Task: inverse folding
């Protein structure tokens, strides 16, 4: 199963607190931990509209472990700032910019140009019923009960939202207290599937090809082995870069996300450990590099990328107030940070179920893009921006045995952010929350998928 990013286990946190790390390493780990806290509290306060204290307890503390108790968080609603400090000094600061969400304040950050954007008209489709839709199927209701239920002594779930769509209609949905049909929810790595969509749009327009090399400006040497890395290699996590995404604050991806304003520049600086195409290795560094390339083709910096996504993806799907976050260099953080409602996440899933056709019949993604996206990479349980039941992986076989069909695939982010797509059943199910390891609630999700397929035949 995939590695989950930036999780500091409690033992690691205790070691940090007791000085078990060297001074040099600790000087990097402390800002990473504080960056996790500053960014997540900022985004869920100012974008998600959630209580900062609850966010810290449910979203930050499980990531930082006991070490999180040593940090002090200050939220300034008048300035849009979140500051995280130790007893000695400020360690990290995040700032909210309307329309762009939050980003850490780091040296060299480029200003974000605030550009007024016309609101997207709500789509006249089955994804936005005026009233919340309760399940009318007893088996589905029972499965939903189990998805949300907390059990003493068991890993917490903190499920925030579930939406079930059948044949383009919301047939059941449920939300936690403080969350509703319009609440922006944090994507984590579900954002990689948005990057897949933006990439697909440019492929359909003839502006990019899946097999063309990235041509990163940092890789100009004729003997540089990284020059062989293609856009598809990046989408499929087979770049061969030494950019490990591990459960450690000292991993390259942790440093990329929380210590460097120019994330793609940092990712491009990582060496090649093997030629591309040989090994699947999940790393957000690959997606950030692809997002930078997409942005360079779109043009206009962060504002241009934001407008392109609104015009070419969000508006055709009738998606409402979607927030995309950008790094200090103006690159869309297409690995990790999108905010949308559970219904709007379902719209993205429905686009893929229909192989890139929007509700009004226009083609958004190239013909065959769904099959390309869900096709297993080197028999791993991952396709291109989606996890998949295709291929011969043990993980796929386990999901299929639990009732999730062979043609199923899903967008997934750490702590249980998921968009399940089941083409053979004409079903899309979104599930978002702050669930605990090791499984992040996926067993309950699979039971819900099985119940939904049987109930909505």
Result:
């Amino acid at each position: 199963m995939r590695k989950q990013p930036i999780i500091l286990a409690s033992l690691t946190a205790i070691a940090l607190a007791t000085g078990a790390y060297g001074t040099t390493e600790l000087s990097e780990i402390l800002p990473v931990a504080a960056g996790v806290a500053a960014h997540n509290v900022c985004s869920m306060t100012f974008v998600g509209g959630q209580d900062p204290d609850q966010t810290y307890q449910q979203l930050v503390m499980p990531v930082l472990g006991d070490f999180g108790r040593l940090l002090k968080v200050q939220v300034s609603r008048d300035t849009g700032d979140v500051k995280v400090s130790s007893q000695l000094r400020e360690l990290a600061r995040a700032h909210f910019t309307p329309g762009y969400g939050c980003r850490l304040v780091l040296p060299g950050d480029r200003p974000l140009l605030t550009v007024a954007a016309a609101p997207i008209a709500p789509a006249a489709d089955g994804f936005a019923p005026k009233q919340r839709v309760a399940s009318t199927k007893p088996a589905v209701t029972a499965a939903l009960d189990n998805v949300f239920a907390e059990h003493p002594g068991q890993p917490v779930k903190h499920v925030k939202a579930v939406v079930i769509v059948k044949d383009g209609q919301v047939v059941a949905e449920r939300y936690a207290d403080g969350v509703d049909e319009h609440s922006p929810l944090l994507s984590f790595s579900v954002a990689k599937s948005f990057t897949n969509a933006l990439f697909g749009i440019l492929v359909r327009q003839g502006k990019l090809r899946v097999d063309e090399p990235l041509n990163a400006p940092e890789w100009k040497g004729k003997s540089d082995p990284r020059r062989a890395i293609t856009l598809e290699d990046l989408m499929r996590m087979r770049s061969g870069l030494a950019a490990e995404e591990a459960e450690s604050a000292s991993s390259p991806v942790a440093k990329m996300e929380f210590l460097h304003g120019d994330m793609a520049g940092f990712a491009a600086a990582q060496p090649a450990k093997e030629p591309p195409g040989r090994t699947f290795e999940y790393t957000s560094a690959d997606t950030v590099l692809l997002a930078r390339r997409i942005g360079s083709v779109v043009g206009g910096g962060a504002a241009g990328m934001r407008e392109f996504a609104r015009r070419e993806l969000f508006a055709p799907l009738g998606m409402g107030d979607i927030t995309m976050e950008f790094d200090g260099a103006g690159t869309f953080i297409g690995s990790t940070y999108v905010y949308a409602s559970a219904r709007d996440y379902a719209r993205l899933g429905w686009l893929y179920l229909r192989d890139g056709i929007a509700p009004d019949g226009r083609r958004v993604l190239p013909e065959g893009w769904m099959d390309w996206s869900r096709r297993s990479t080197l028999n791993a349980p991952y396709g291109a921006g989606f996890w998949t039941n295709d291929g011969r992986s043990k993980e796929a076989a386990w999901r299929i045995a639990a009732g999730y069909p062979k043609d199923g695939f899903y967008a997934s982010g750490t702590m249980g952010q998921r968009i399940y797509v089941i083409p053979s059943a004409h079903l899309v199910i979104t599930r978002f929350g702050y669930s605990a390891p090791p499984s992040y609630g996926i067993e309950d999700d699979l039971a819900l998928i099985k119940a939904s397929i049987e109930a909505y035949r």
